[in-house]
Amino acid sequence: MLKLFEREQLNLAKLPEAQTAIEVRDLCLRFGDKHVLHNITMRIPKNRITALIGQSGCGKSTLISCFNRMNDLIDNSVTDGEIIIDGRNINRKKENLSILRSQVGMVFQRPNPFPMSIYDNVCYGLRLQGIKQRRQLDDAVERALIEAALWDEVKDRLFESATTLSGGQQQRLVIARALALKPSILLLDEPTSALDPLTTLIIEELMAELKKRCTIVIVTHNMQQASRVSDYTAFLHQGELVEYSDSDTLFTLPEKKQTEDYITGRYG
Amino acid sequence: MGKWSPRQFLSNRQQQSYVISLGAFCAGLLVVALACVLMLITIRGLDYFWPRPVQSIQFELPDGTAKQVYAQINERHINSAVESGSEPAFVFRYSDSQHPYGRSLLVEANAVQAISEAHQAADILLHNGTRVFSEPLSIRLPDGQSGELAQYDEVRDTVSAIREQIETVRKERLASVHRELASLDLRQVEKDAPARLRLYADFERWQQEVLRLEAQLADYQLVTRFNNGSEFLIPLDDIDRLSYPGQLDWFGKLGIVGAGVVAFLTDAPKQANTAGGVFPALFGTVLMIFVMTILVTPFGVLAAVYLHEYAPDNHLTSVIRICVSNMAGVPSIVYGVFGLGFFVYLVGGNIDELFFSDALPAPTMGTPGVFWASLTMAILTLPVVIVATEEGLRRVPEGLKSGSYALGATKFETIWHTVLPMASPGIMTGVILAIARAAGEVAPLMLVGAVKFAPNLPFDGEFPYLHLDRQFMHLGVLIYDGAFHSQTDVRSASLMFASCLLLLVVVFVLNVLAVILRRRLRKRYLRGY
Questions:
Q1: Model pTM?
Q2: Smallest CA–CA separation between A14 and chain B, in Å?
Q3: On chain B, which terminus has fewer CB atoms closer than 10 Å, C or N?
Q4: Is residue B123 within 8 Å of residue B245, measured between CB atoms?
């Protein structure tokens, strides 16, 4: 009877390659002289939700940005170590960032729809890939919006400006925009911190639905959220990976003292 | 006792209210000054179009001869310090048998014996821009016949029909003969070749036709009488407009104003820019501004995008930024000299040597022209566009750019699809400022292509239609020129004011267009941000 409520457990340390979405090996990152990430090694399982938690400034947003190399945009960032997605090290020099970023979608803290129509927003990535046929775009837009649970609300106003949508709708639009590219991994950087509780709930339900299609990595400050939605949780402290295990264990029986202090709210 | 300070006897609220009043006073003063400028320009400008009554004036010349003339009084009782101490005097323009086409005169008030309205006298505007004030009596028709004044409109129609016939012959027949002759010349066909002789014969025939028609035209004349009784004949073909200002009611006057405004906007200047219209100047101004805008916008936007998005954040970049800002403060005449020395002489001269060497020593591009003027103004307004565009780029949220990158866009794609559309209102602000600045400049333009009188428009029916190498007329230059005309001839002075008013209207209209465009862009790209 108890088994029904138990989640299936994977051995994270010995995760087979077929079940690994992202493998991080000895990842170090610094901005100029400031070291932000130290020797991070972890395997993120496929089709699961993995949460990154930790204090502000512990490097969790930086870590998630490594997975689609958004840190490249920061002038003096230096990355060492390997990140293996789809069997290749994405930190290599000749990695095609356009292809990588269409495989690894990202959603930010503040909803950032482009100042165009809802339709054009969803098409943005597809058009960049050179897809121009109306039929193809129409289908992709419908599919992405349905997947993001936004279709019913916007199907009659696809050509209105995206900035007229509410905050929660905008965030789902941004998710749809990423989904239109059929990514295998979706990175969510505090996706609900600018939203009200009800909208947060909608997004969380959406995530549970989406993990059937892709691997989700989420950064969050909200401990309840992490324990609610995620299958696995990693706790970072001052640029180091302190503890990484399935969420139930981490939130109920943490191994390390630091983790316990953090999740019980003694600091952070 | 401490130092004197307002705190001693004013409450906080009082202090504040004094500061507010002072500020409001300054702002009010500004509004009043602006209103004064606009009112002066508008009143003096519209004065040019308002019909003035024709008066019958009896006066004595300094040498003792008495005169009785029809005249339009320009100013009464002005203090003419130059000619007669501080005695009041009249300035008027009159016509008589000695000066049928008008003469401006300043006469002391005590030399004027009588002034009365002359309802029967007409203000006759001729095609060449001069005016005749006289009393129409009858119409002289061909074969010595005489017609009534009532037939005037009917006869005018006949006359314009003949005039049209002449123009048709000129345009369709003579011009084509000229073209063919020119092409024969170009192919160096012999002087007595049959084709050439046939063309000569054609030319002779059509020339005769024109002469015959013109002789016919000359037979239609308006018989008029000056105030002293002498008769004066005016060929009907020369008359542009005939009106009796003394007999007009308000609607009639407004009609005259309307016709005057239309003529002002569509005619070429006459009588050395003291009469007629300003169409070439209006056209030149607008063309120059358009070409300048087309040149400066992409250039300025590219420079701003580079400075803001690509340039490394170091000393060199900040030095460039400071230079750009300082460029806006360089006196405009410096740009004029630069345009003349660099674009006209150096660049234009070299283009001539390379591409138009057959035409040398006559310059083709190595001479001031509308293109060089536009280019000079583009350089002059470049800093404005760069600064405004950078301001617009700064307002694009970082989150949007990250969003674009995260969807796989490259830096260029991000700038093209996301950053530039959002910065477009800022770019439009820069363009508005550039237009306002360029429309008002005179000094640099006079060095690089604007002239007081240009025989041809920079646009005509000959290939390549738009002749950007030609010199052009500019409203600002026309105004500058107008300020040096006779002070006693108020009509030409008010032509200057009318041009000034038109320049204001042009700048206003262009600005309104740009503001509407900017508002649409804002609505489209910045709503919700």
A1: 0.78
A2: 31
A3: N
A4: yes
